[in-house]
Amino acid sequence: MILLLISLVSAQPLMTSLDEGQAAPFSGRLFNDEAVASIIAGKEFAEQQCEIQMSLDYSLQLAEKQLQIDYLGIEKETLQKKHEALIDIRDEEIKSLRKHINPKRSMWDILWWIYAWNSFFSCDILRC
Questions:
Q1: Is the pTM of this model over 0.90?
Q2: For 98-112, how does the pLDDT look when each residue is reduced to its tens digit (9 = 90+)?
Q3: CA-to-CA distance for 118 and 108, rounded, in angstroms?
Q4: Which helix (DSSP H) or strand (DSSP E) does residue 6 occupy?
Q5: What angle do CA 31, 34, 35 make, to 5 degrees?
Q6: Regarding predicted confidence, which is higher, 113 or 121?
């Protein structure tokens, strides 16, 4: 087995042109011009098919990656909008709570406090 592999690796390709009826100078396979053309065309076709397949695989991978990028972009935008909505809700709640803690005084409330203040001090002054 090893000798067969060594002989195959060290074998040099031989080529010669023969006319019909001539004896071959070495043993081997004999191809006519059409068979040689078929082998060459098959090799070129296989190379082109490989290039097309590689191009298709590359395009598919590129499309998948672009789809992932687009999906992540949409997910990011959605999360940003959700975050902004939560911030708006929080701000509105803070405003509402502040109104309940420090309600704005109406004019009547202010006048009532002034009247109460004056009444307290005028009573206090009159006693003295």
A1: no
A2: 887 766 666 777 777
A3: 15
A4: helix 2-10
A5: 40
A6: 113
